[in-house]
Amino acid sequence: MISVVVTAENPIVRAGLESIIRTSELLEIVGSSSSTDTLVQLLEERQPDVVLLDYSFSDDDPAEEKLLALGAESPALVILANNPHSTWLESVLQVGVRAILPRTATAEEIVATVVTAALGLMVLHPDFMDSLLPLKESSARRLPASPIQALTPREIEVLGMLALGMGNKNIAKQLSISEHTVKFHVSSIFQKLNASSRTEAVTLGARLGLIML
């Protein structure tokens, strides 16, 4: 079971995120907080695997200062944010944020991303890729379709499990989905990464920064 702490200033948003986490048999809520100030103490007490943070940022309150306060041994951080600019994205990724999603992310995307982050992998929603990794015209010609943009949070999650050597049956059991659905995700990963085997897909995923080996 993956333990999660939910942090959101707005109580309605916080309740909504808690409700989403409870929909998954893989996740359990071990605490919630209304600010990053109270979060630090909560982390010491509960030691969760993942922190799901609804983040309201401004130029006067940079994310990196809040997140650095969590320390180097902090759990995986998954942030929900609206329209982040490239400087902010680079800052939070540098201090160890594991995943960034828009506030419009679906419940399935949030759950899949939390599980993926707990596995030690990174997730950056496709909506944010243009801001963080603008391609030059020459690069665009060499890479007409960016694999990072193409893979969904669920596909990255499955790719991470492939890297752990898990078979379709075990992946299906872990994610509470059918083996047929797992095969569909694996086939999609192969196509998007232009891979012909699981080993090649995992190798490409690691080179692209989608997973860590």
Describe the structure.
This protein is of the alpha/beta class and 213 residues long. The chain has two domains: 1-134, 3-Layer(aba) Sandwich (Rossmann fold), CATH 3.40.50.2300; 135-213, Orthogonal Bundle (Arc Repressor Mutant, subunit A), CATH 1.10.10. It is built from twelve helices and six strands. The chain has helices spanning 11-22, 36-46, 63-68, 86-94, 107-118, 129-132, 137-142, 147-150, 153-163, 168-175, 179-193, 198-207, and strands at residues 2-7, 27-33, 50-54, 76-81, 97-102, 123-124. A six-stranded parallel sheet has the order 2-1-3-4-5-6, with helices on both faces. It starts with a strand and ends in a 6-residue tail after the last helix. The model is unreliable at 134-149 (pLDDT under 50).
| Rg measurement, Å | 17 Å
CATH class bucket of the largest domain: Alpha Beta
Alpha-beta content class = alpha/beta
* CATH architecture label name of the largest domain: 3-Layer(aba) Sandwich
Salient structural properties:
Rossmann fold; six-stranded parallel β-sheet; alpha/beta; globular; Arc Repressor Mutant, subunit A; 213 residues
Layout of helices and strands:
Layout: E1 2-7, H1 11-22, E2 27-33, H2 36-46, E3 50-54, H3 63-68, E4 76-81, H4 86-94, E5 97-102, H5 107-118, E6 123-124, H6 129-132, H7 137-142, H8 147-150, H9 153-163, H10 168-175, H11 179-193, H12 198-207
Parallel strand pairs: 1-2, 1-3, 3-4, 4-5, 5-6
Helix pairs in contact: 5-9, 9-11, 9-12, 10-11, 11-12
